[in-house]
Amino acid sequence: MSVDTTAEEMKIGARMDALTPNREHRKLFAYIGAGAMIDAYDIYVAAGVSAALVSTGFAGVHEVAVFMSMTFFGMLLGAATAGFVGDKFGRRMSYQINLLIFAVAGFAAALAPTFEFLVGTRFIMGIGLGAELVLAAAILGEFVPPRSRGRWTAMLGILVNSGLLFASAIGAVVISSFGWRWMFVIGAVLAVIVWIARTRCPESPRWLVVKGRMNEAQAIVERFERLSQTTLEDNPPASVTTATESRDTDKRPFWQLAVLGTVVAVGVNMFVYGFISWMPTFFVEQGIDVSHSLAYTTAMALGAPGGGLVCLLLINRLNRRTAIVAFSIIVIPLGLAYASAQSIIMIVIIGILLVTAIYTLVTFVLYSYMPELYPTRYRLRGTGISYTFARGASIVVPFVMSGLFVAFGIFGPIGFVCAMAICMIVVVFAIPVETRGRSLEEIA
Fold it and tell me: Half-sphere exposure of 417 toward its Cβ, with a 13 Å CA cutoff?
C-alpha cells in the first residue's frame, strides 16, 4: 500500500469516526441486522427441526448429528470464502451473494423428499449462513465511530441472539401444527425480502480507499456527513484506551490476532452448537414429548436476547478482555448447576441464566471484539479465518455431543462447555489485545 493510499485511508477513517450516528447509520443497521437475524433464526431452526425429525421417525439421533454437521460443513465453506470475496470484490457483493444462496436452498429444503436430499440442501444453506455472520459485525464496525461502536455491535448481537427465541417460539407453534418444512419456507421468504431491500446498502468507504476508489469513498462519506451533527473539523476522534493498553496492543503480529480470534470464536461456537442447539433433542431423549421440549427450550431462549442486553449495558463499562474472562468464569458453575438440577422448574430457571451468560459472551466476542482485531484490508479474511476454524470444530461437535450424552448424560456436554470456557480464559490472558474505544486504523 502506497504512502498516499495510507494517508487517505487514515483520513477517511478519521472522518467516519468523527460522525454522529444518524439516519444513514440506522438504515445500514437495519439492512445488516435484518439479514443477520434471519440467518440466526435459521441456524436455530436446526434445534427444533432436529427434535421433530427424531419424533416423526424421519431421522434418528445419529442421523440428526449428520444433519447438523453438514450445516457446519457449508458454514465452514461460506466463512472461508466470504472473507476473501468481501476483501477482494467488496462488502456489498459478498453480502448479497450469500443471502441469495441461502434463500434458494431454503425453498429446496422445504421440499426435501428424503433425508439425504435435506442434508444436501442444508449444506448449501450453510454456505450462506457461514458468510452472513462473518460479514455483519465487521461491516457495521467500518461505519460506526469507535465511541458508539460497542453499543451498535451489541444491538446487532441482541438481534442475532433473538434468532434463538424467534426460532424457538415460531417452532413451538409451526412445527407442532404444520410440520418442520414450513420453518424453512418462513426463513427463505424473509431472506428474499431482505435481499431486495439490501440492494440499497452502501459500500464501505474504508474498503473503497484500500482499493484506490477515492471518489466513491468520498461520495459515501459526504452522504453520511450531510446528516451528521459533527464532522472531523469540529469533532476530532479521541481514543478512550489508556497508554498502557495501547502499548500492550500495538504491533501484534497477524498470527497472534488470528490465534486469539480463532480460539474465542471456537469457544463461543461450542457453547451454542455444542449445547444450546441440542437442548430440544436432549429433552426428547429424556422422554419429554416434542411439544413440551420446544416449550421449555423457548422459555430458556429468553436468555439469548437477555445476554445481548447485558452486553449492551456493560459494553462501554468493561474492557472486551475483562468481559470475556468474567463471563467465561460465570458459565462454569452455571453449567454444573444445570447438569445437577432435578426438577423441570430449576432446569428452566438455571437454563435461562446459563443461556444469558453464554449469549453475553457471544455478543462480546463475535459482534464487538473479533471484528475489531483485524486491519481493513484483511478484516473479512481474518474474521473468516476465525469463523472457518470455528465452523470446522462445529462439524465435529455434534458427534462429540451425542457420544458424551449417551455415555455420561447431560454432564458430558456440560463438562465439554466448561472445558472450552477455560481454554478461552487462558488464551485471552496469553495474548492481551484490547480494542475498546479505539479507531480501527489505530488498532491496525
Answer: 35
Write down the residue that cell numbers 474474521 correspond to. Answer: 383
For the chain, the 3-state helix, strand and coil shares in percent, each to the nearest 5, are 85, 0, 15
pTM given for the model: 0.74
Dump pLDDT digits (tens) for 311-369.
Answer: 989 988 888 899 999 999 998 888 888 777 777 788 788 888 988 998 899 888 888 88
By three-state DSSP, how is residue 323 classified?
helix
Interval 49-67: pLDDT, tens: 877 887 777 776 677 778 8
Place of cell 493498553: 245
Domains belonging to the chain, first-starting first, are 3-229+239-443 (1.20.1250.20)
Phi-psi region of 101 (alpha: psi -120 to 50; beta: other; left: phi over 0): alpha
Give CA–CA dist 47/297, Å, rounded.
9
**And the C-alpha cell for 35?**
439479514
Per DSSP, the three-state class of 286 is coil
Q: How far apart are CA 110 and CA 154, in angstroms?
A: 32
Q: In terms of C-beta density within 10 A (0-12 exposed, 13-18 middle, 19 or more buried), how is residue 285 classed? A: middle
From residue 433, alpha-carbon distances to 141, 275, 334, 426 in Å are 17, 28, 27, 13
CA distance 207 to 217: 8
What cell was used for 125?
A: 444453506
- Show the cell assigned to 174: 409451526
User: Distance between CA 91 and CA 80 in Å, rounded?
Assistant: 15
Sign of CA dihedral 244, 250, 255, 261: positive
Of 328, 334, 307, 327, which Cα lies nearest the Cα of 423? Answer: 328
Gap between the Cα atoms of 325 and 345, Å rounded: 29
pLDDT tens column, 27-39: 999 988 888 888 7
Residue 442: helix, strand or coil by DSSP? Answer: helix
Q: What is the 3-state secondary structure (H, E, C) of 165-193?
A: HHHHHHHHHHHHHHCCHHHHHHHHHHHHH
H-helix segments, 179-242: 181-197, 205-210, 214-226
